[in-house]
Prior knowledge:
CATH superfamily of the largest domain: Jelly Rolls
Strand order of the largest sheet: 1-2-3-9-4-7
Helix content: 10-25%
CATH class of the largest domain: Mainly Beta
Number of helices: 5
Distance between the termini: 34 Å
Number of domains: 2
Largest sheet: 6 strands, antiparallel
Strand content: 25-35%
Structural class: alpha+beta
Order of helices and strands: HHHHHEEEEEEEEE
Amino acid sequence: MQISVRMAAERFRRAREEAGLTLRELGEKAGLAPSTIQKIENSRLIPSLAVCIRLADALNRSLSHFADDGGGPADVRYVARGRGRVTRVKGSPLTVEHVAEPLVNPKMEAFLLTAAPGGRSGRDEPIIFRGEQIVVGVKGRVHFDIRGQEHVVRPGDVLHFKGDIPHRWENRGPGEAQLFVVCAFSYER
Length: 189
């Protein structure tokens, strides 16, 4: 299943309005230009994963809130192998399979992230969010830059770090890479 860009854009706009924030106020919280947010809300700009995380964090929402197909929260979810909801951004070398659908009041999300050669976490802006992240290498090699230190995640390797440390990643290899990613979000201020 693919979520439409228009639906995600509308959810960003609605979340901003529900939070009572202007474009400028949200831009200050997320570290983005108000014009960038306006373009996202009007479906004229498809944001990078890093920008989506920054917006979700600033709006105190989980990332899946903006990409959920509307199935609604539950206490228990089962996703069979290869049957997770898939998100693809047109023109991007990334595919995200949501392997854990949100529960009622979710505190974490899990993804199977597939990156083609050259796939990376965003343009130049690092990813920052409140919470923790666990990354397990499944296939290929992915280079992480965390606080200026490089970590290369290979199949079976585990990388665990605080999300508020600026970080980015990139598949510099010749083949496809896969990571199993768990993000535990914390919205306490």
